[in-house]
Amino acid sequence: MSEARVSNNKTEFAVIYQWLIKPGKETQFRKAWEGLTLLQMNNRGSRGSRLHKSEQGTWIAYAQWVDKKSWEASCEQKPEDEMWSQLMLDAVEDTWPPTFLAPIADHLMPEQLASQGLTGPHVKH
């Protein structure tokens, strides 16, 4: 896979993760995911992530990274990751391999703009 080269300090790499969470462990998983995500944002080059629940019941996260090297370095287990990682693993019934993405075009509106009612044309499905 070739890596995208996006200039102007933009995201060059993204990852999609997918899990099936054990019944009753949803809150544990979410708190652990949030803790690990914040750690990666503050110390590892992550541009943040969004956690979703699909209609099929799986949980899916979309994470943006400065580049693939930053993501690879974040995968190396560090002592401060241990608690969050163990809590997440304990809550997971099944997982899928990550999907790696190279951005081509970006029209995702930042939450700050969306919350101010600044939206673009709507697509009807």
From TrEMBL:
Q: Which SUPFAM superfamilies match?
A: Dimeric alpha+beta barrel
Superkingdom of source: Bacteria
**Signal peptide location:** none
Which Pfam family is one of those matched by this entry? ABM
Q: Which UniProt keywords apply?
A: Monooxygenase, Oxidoreductase
Single GO MF annotation:
monooxygenase activity
- Limits of the ABM domain: 13-74
**Name of the protein described by the UniProt record:** Antibiotic biosynthesis monooxygenase
Organism, by scientific name, is Stenotrophobium rhamnosiphilum
